[in-house]
Amino acid sequence: MIAVALSGGTDSAAAAIRLHEGREELVGITLVFDEENPPAISIERAGLLCAHLKIRHVVMDATSQFTTVKNYFCREYLAGTTPNPCVVCNRDIKFGLLQKQADELGADRIATGHYVRKAGQGGRVWLGRAKERNSQEYFLGLLSQDAIRKSLFPLHDITRDQAWELAARAGLHILKRETSQDVCFIGAEGYIPFITSYTGFELQPGDILNRRGVVIGRHKGALSYTIGQRKGLGMGFGKKVYVLGRDMEKNTVTVGGREQWPYRGFTMEQVNLMKIPALNEPLAARMKVRYRQDAQDALLIPLTGGRTAVRYEGLFSPGQLAVAYDRKDDILCAGIIGSPLKDVPVTAG
Prior knowledge:
Layout: E1 2-5, H1 10-21, E2 26-32, H2 40-53, E3 56-61, H3 63-78, H4 85-104, E4 109-111, E5 117-121, E6 124-128, H5 145-149, E7 151-152, H6 160-169, H7 191-199, E8 206-209, E9 215-219, E10 242-247, E11 252-256, E12 265-273, E13 283-288, E14 296-302, E15 308-311, E16 321-325, E17 331-341
Parallel strand pairs: 1-2, 1-4, 2-3, 4-7, 8-11
Antiparallel strand pairs: 5-6, 8-9, 10-11, 12-15, 12-17, 13-14, 13-16, 14-15, 16-17
């Protein structure tokens, strides 16, 4: 039996429909993260879908576990890094807690509405880019081998438009043509109001510095800026400038031209090996350090203690997920961006 994660949206519904059409035995599971997430209408939609497919619908309370994701998000932002809560939630809850619930229900596999391609060879499994233009494998970069083996991605070979058409043909008019927001617990007002409300932290104006440490302006609070940000700095500098750094303790933001970016790479922490079983020597790869970007050339260099150094010429922000791909758009490995490096070794060490 397959447990299908149902959010009440089009993507997960289309995944369930494809499996049902393949005559698979299914059970639908909807995870509840807090009082309004997902909204009551979404839970109702998931229930109506299950009734349509004549399968059992289980609503699971995950509020306690999801609190750890919110805490992580706020803690990392206030420490000066840029966290990616969706990546942690996918690993720990949507493919962790969900699998435990599936086991209790007698299901041996889980399925989601992610647009992801799954492949494997020689005992290893990995994820790669799907057909959909907004493929989502980046957000699943920390999934373990066991989690991938037990997971199915029915939408791997169709686009989101085709998923909408599939749901419409099934007569599910309750579904809306909408896409998920980037972070489910952040409202339209953005992450700053959430963090200040959730933690009691208060923004304080501070200095904007150039690379020499000279004050060249004022900002509304260092928390409001991320490394690599170009727009929304609140003032004109006469040229294109980026946020090159922020110091939460001193409440300063440093800006400068792209050519003033001082780093040539970073360490990658919590490395999760996916297509490759080990990293014993330098390996050329294509690297994404943000979801909405094209992969860029990089070099992975193994360090002691299971850590990895990455030679990467682009802008990046510590705390974000770094995903290394091969030329086939398969994930080689992934990890959390750690310390910036001004010089990256070219040999293992």
